[in-house]
Amino acid sequence: MQKHEKLVVVCTAQGDAAAAIVKGRLESEGIPVLLSYESVGGILGVIVDGIGEVRIMVPEPFAGDAKRVLEETGQNNESCGPS
Q1: Which residues does 83 contact at the CB level (< 8 Å), separation at least 6?
Q2: In angstroms, rounded to a whole number, what is the distance separating the alpha carbons of residues 34 and 16?
């Protein structure tokens, strides 16, 4: 990933574990991933009303491929991770 590449949020996971699963799936397809954590949830260990959210971000040129992979695995573009 280049420092100047624009990042796009392809979905939002609820918690670290769900984000790690999605990240691994995308990376297995050769898609670079950056996770952006909502900080309070990690400290308090809660996932409610946006607290504990993790934004799954990819470089803009990979966004279409990432969304396709998520759709193939039954994820939508707003929330992702195991249900």
Answers
A1: 74
A2: 13
